[in-house]
Amino acid sequence: MTTREFDDITLERVREHVWEIAPEGEMEVPARVLASEALLEEIGDDDSLQQLKNAAHLPGMQKYALAMPDAHQGYGFPVGGVGAIDAEDGCISPGAVGFDINCGVRMLRTPLTYDDVRGREEELVDALFDAVPSGLGGGGVVEGSRDAVDGALERGVEWALEEGYATEYDLKHCEDEGRRPDAKPEYVPKKAKDRGMNQMGSLGSGNHFLEVQRVTDTFDDGVADAYGLREGEIVVLIHCGSRGLGHQICSNYVRKIEQEHGELLDRLPDKDLAAAPAGSALAEEYYGAMCAAVNFAWVNRQLITHRTRETLADVFDAVDTDDVELLYDVAHNIAKRETHEVDGEQRELFVHRKGATRAFPAGRAEVPAAYRDVGQPVIIPGSMGAGSYVLKGGDRSLSETFGSTAHGAGRLMSRTQAKQEFWGGDVQDDLAEQEHIYVKANSGATIAEEAPGVYKDIDEVVRVSGDLGIGDKVARTFPVCNIKG
C-alpha cells in the first residue's frame, strides 16, 4: 500500500517504514512518520498525526518533522517527536521539549545474577520502595536547600560528585558528562526552585519507575561486551526527570512566550506549540533555564542511583556500592544545540526530542570515550510485563533522524482509559503469579495506568528502529521487580 488516509490526513509511503505528509499551507517542511503498517495504524488512532503536521509549521524546521515508531498524542508536539530547527533563523519551543524536562533513563550494572535475586524479589522490592521516594508531592533522597538546588542547576552531576553522591566513573558514562554548560540558574523561576528543593532524589508519579531487570538476550556480543552486559546479569533501570521544577519552568515560559511573541503564536496552528524566535531574549532565557533543569534531572537520577547502591549493598552481602556501575544515562525530553548536515552544509540546530532518544553512531564526538568506537548506548524501556532493550546508535541515524530513535514502547491508551480497562491489584497479582515480576506502588490506580496492555509492542518498535538503521539491538532485559509512584 503506497497511501494511507487518517481522517483528512494523507500519508504517502516513501519506502519501507517511512511515511510522509506532504507540505501544505504554511508548513515549513514535510512531516515524516517512521512506522510499520501495524504501528502506523496505532499512531493514527489519536491526534499524533495532526500534531506532527502542526509541528511542521514551526519556523526554521529543517528537512522534516519526525515521529518515531513509538509516537502518540502529546501536548502540542507529539510524544515520540523530533524537530530540528535552525538555531539562528528558527525558534525554540517549550512544547516541543515537554513539561518534564530531561525525563530520561539510566541503566546500572550490578555484580548480581538472576540466581542471586530469585526468591528474594519481595524483600528487594520492599527495600527499594522504602529507600527511594516516589509519588506526587515532596520528599527526596536529600533535604534540598537553595544552595543545593542552585548547585544542581548549574553544575549537574559535578555537584553530586562534590557532595559525595557520585563517582568520576558516573560522569564519564552520562550524556554530556551530566552537565549542560549552557545552564543559567538565574533564569529559573523562584517557584520552580522552591518546588525542586523538596524533590531532590525522587521518582515522582505517572510512568516513572525504578525497575530491577535481568539480561535475557544479547544480540551483538562485541557491543554487549563493550557495554558490560552479559546474559543472566541483573541491571537496574531508572526512569524519571526534573519533577515539579521542570514543569514550572515550562509553564512559566509558555506564558511568557504567549505574552511577548503573540505574533509568532498567531501564525501557528496550535498555541501549545508556543515558541520563542531564535536570538530573542526569551529564547536565550528559556534555553538557559531548560539546560539548568536538564542538570537538575541528572542530579535527581544520580541521587536515586546513590540510594539504590546503598540498598543493594544492604540487601546482598556480596554487593559493595562501588560494584554498581552506571552503564549510561540518556535524556529523552530535551532541546540541544547540535551540528548536523543539511543540504550538504553543517548547520547549528536546536534539535528538539520529545519522547525521543539521542542515538549517535560510532565516531560522533559527543559519544563518551568508552563507547565512541561502537556507538552510543540507547536505552528503550518497554512495559512492566514486556521487558526493555539496549540498542546502539545506528549508522543511518544522523541522515534519517538527526541522530534519534524511539524512547519506549509508546502508549496505546490514555490513563483514564487504562483505569477503566484494568484493576491495579489484578495486574499486580497477574505479574507476580504468571511472570514472577513483583511490583509495588503508592496506589493501585498507578499500576492500572501502567499495565502492560496500555503500551504498544516494544519488539515491533525496536524492529522498525533496526530496519531503518537508526538503532541496532544489543541486549534485551526482562523485569524482576518494579517500584512506581
UniProtKB/TrEMBL annotation:
Q: What is its EC number?
A: 6.5.1.-
Does the keyword section mention rRNA-binding? no
Q: Know the name of this protein?
A: tRNA-splicing ligase RtcB
Q: Which GO terms describe its molecular function?
A: GTP binding; metal ion binding; RNA ligase (ATP) activity; RNA ligase (GTP) activity
Q: Does the keyword Ribonucleoprotein apply?
A: no
Q: Which Pfam families match?
A: RtcB
Q: Which cofactor does it need?
A: Mn(2+)
Provide the reaction this enzyme catalyses: a 3'-end 3'-phospho-ribonucleotide-RNA + a 5'-end dephospho-ribonucleoside-RNA + GTP = a ribonucleotidyl-ribonucleotide-RNA + GMP + diphosphate; a 3'-end 2',3'-cyclophospho-ribonucleotide-RNA + a 5'-end dephospho-ribonucleoside-RNA + GTP + H2O = a ribonucleotidyl-ribonucleotide-RNA + GMP + diphosphate + H(+)
- The residues responsible for catalysis, as annotated, are H407
Q: Which InterPro entries match?
A: RtcB (IPR001233), RtcB-like_sf (IPR036025)
The positions annotated for binding Mn(2+) 1 are D100, H208
Keyword tags: GTP-binding, Ligase, Manganese, Metal-binding, Nucleotide-binding
Question: Top-level EC class, please?
Answer: ligase
Cofactor binding note: Binds 2 manganese ions per subunit.
Stretches for region Disordered: 176-197
User: Which stretches are transmembrane?
Assistant: none
**Chain sites annotated for binding GMP:** 207-211, 332-333, 381-384, 388, 407-410, 484
- Composition skew (Basic and acidic residues), residue ranges: 176-196
At which positions is Mn(2+) 2 bound? Answer: H239, H332
**Biological processes per GO annotation:** tRNA splicing, via endonucleolytic cleavage and ligation
What does the UniProt function comment say about this protein?
Answer: Essential for tRNA splicing and maturation. Acts by directly joining spliced tRNA halves to mature-sized tRNAs. Joins RNA with 2',3'-cyclic-phosphate or 3'-phosphate ends to RNA with 5'-hydroxy ends.
Q: What quaternary structure, including any partners, is listed in this protein's UniProt entry?
A: Monomer.
Provide the family line. Answer: Belongs to the RtcB family.
